[in-house]
Amino acid sequence: HLLENIHDHSFDDHVRDAADHYNPGDHLGDYEHGDHVQHYLEHFNKGHHLERDHLFNLFDPEHRREAVELFEIFMDCKSYDTFFKTAAWAREHVNELLFVYSYTVALLNRDDTQGLHIPPMYEINPHYFTTTDVIQAAYSAKMKQHDTTIDMHFTGTKVNPEQWVAYYGEDIGLNNHHFHWHADFPFWWKKEYGHEKDRKGELFFYAHHMLTARFEAERLSNHLPEIDPLHWDKEIEQGFSPHTTYRREGEFPFRPDHMHFHDLPFVTVNDMKNMEHRIEAAIALGYIVDDHGNHISINDTHGIEVLGEIMESSACSKNAHYYGSLHNLAHVMLSRVSDPEGKYDLPPGVMEHFETATRDPSFFRLHKYMDNIFKSHKDSLPPYTHEELDFPGVSVEQVTVTGGSHHDNELHTFFEDFEFDLNNALDHGKGIEEVKVHAKVKRLNHNPFTYNIKVQSDKDHVGVVRIFMAPEYSYYGTVFTHNQERWLMVEMDRFTTKLHKGSNVITRKSTESSATIPDSLSFDQLRHDVEAGTLEYNKYHRHCGHPQRLLLPKGSVEGIKFDVFVMVTDFEKDKAYDHEHHEVHENSLSYCGTLHEVYPDNKPMGFPFDRRIDDDDVFHTHNMHFQEVVVKHEPDH
Ligand SMILES: [Cu+2]
């Protein structure tokens, strides 16, 4: 209820009651750090806080400070009851978007709220997911008091080739995933919050590497060349017109084609280049210099963790004073490029909100730039040896992908219609009747399919099955070498399985993927399921995860050829700590790691494709198999 009608005061009696009669200042003993609460309230009572009905921007240091303080208070609540009352108080008193952010991150991270269902962000704050024309039509429907469903289209026209792949960057589920990734792994996260986020720096690299590789597959599906990385000295070739609007501050800024980066009042283009050079130098030297001048080696498997933290940068970064904050500031540089000095009082661009960032095609260019830096680190490490790759006694004999169409190894994609609720974007008042207003969008989807994997084993083992997929041919029609293809590999699934002595057939459904999650339950479904008592509870339910629908790239009507790669490795060697293989909650392990537990797999993320492949003969071991599949797109019918 706290997340409904966020722009208005709550109509829920529970919430109103708590908000009216509860003041955190009267209950300081109910918080781990009562003095923090007191400090927060003093600040608040002086009016030094972000007012309601304004935009909230996590990249603004003042906004962030306030959001983190509120989050810390939520985490400090000794009981669930205190948490609820504090949240109700905040829901009614602080900026609603700041509240949504702090409250969501607290829900995801408090021990007593694990497994709770959070409605999708596109229903909590529809403005960030919905084009302006649809929002206008929704207001109009509310004024005229009739139920309506409004068609929403991807931005731009066919004259802009980037528009051909807008269905990916503007996919509301993808936007929701990106928001939730950053909510599960906030860059401002501190160890003091009680949970260490295992391999967070590496996951920052990997989750964004996967987004980049996924986008490459969409580009190839639409006969577009690969992503051209941004650079500080080069022009930002493509503009972007977001066609989305803030509630109060007007349209998200438009960026014309061929803009150059500009200095901002608080960071210059030269600062960005310095950060890049210092990081590149660290990679070339194989070590970073920490805050005390000590050398910390990054010349090994764990280097990526240190590098990921530094590049984002996060509260765990070493020597942030020196290495700066390349990724976060790059988002701001791109966001502010249309009004660098603030002359025109333009609000922040889409790049400054995780909900909206992927809408801009330059998001992927920016991340390709980041990804290339990570790649230069990975390429500085030696290729895997035959022994590191092999699983002696185990061989993958055959892989067949079935169920995607009437033919084996042929998969089909299509666009489907999907409706979501715009009610939260609208104004509400006592005595004004509710109307049902929905937006209807197209979403990419595919027929579910099954992997059938034939494995020969010399004895009983537990295996880790790693499945990837990458395009076989480049934009120019040339066949990718394994070394080129590896960086385009998208992780499809990773799971453990028992192998018996002799012949085994492993079957695995695409819907079980450890990379993806199903749709979050909408407000309507949640309300319905709660009333009917059918809401499923799973302590390990995650909100972060690539949408299941987007597991496959679109392909083309004629068909695009991909390699499906399957590798089976030894669980006994791969487990990061002592546990039984079935104890792990895979959910969305691949791109979203684990929320609070130790990451169960000790192999580097992306293994075995994170390292160079210099010699195909060394790379090819019996426990891996490449299978060609064709992805065909069924045009609208
Ligand atoms: Cu991101």
Give a structural overview.
Belongs to the tyrosinase family. Hemocyanin subfamily. There is one protein chain. By secondary structure, this protein is of the alpha+beta class. The chain folds into three domains: 13-113, Hemocyanin, N-terminal domain; 185-379, Di-copper center containing domain from catechol oxidase (di-copper center containing domain from catechol oxidase, Orthogonal Bundle), CATH 1.10.1280.10; 386-403 and 448-515 and 551-633, Sandwich (Immunoglobulin-like), CATH 2.60.40. Helix content is 33%, strand content 16%. The protein is built from 21 helices and 14 strands. The protein has helices at 13-21, 34-45, 61-76, 80-93, 96-109, 121-124, 132-144, 166-169, 172-184, 200-221, 269-285, 303-312, 320-323, 326-335, 361-379, 386-389, 482-485, 523-532, 571-574, 589-592, 616-619; strands spanning 148-151, 287-289, 295-297, 394-402, 410-421, 437-446, 450-457, 461-471, 490-499, 502-509, 516-517, 546-547, 560-570, 624-633. The strands form four sheets. Strands 1-6-5-14-13-8-9 form a seven-stranded mixed β-sheet. Helix 11 runs antiparallel to helix 14 (326-335). The protein is globular, with a radius of gyration of 25 Å. 46% of the residues are buried. The mean pLDDT is 95. Residues 178, 182, 208 line the site of copper (II) ion.
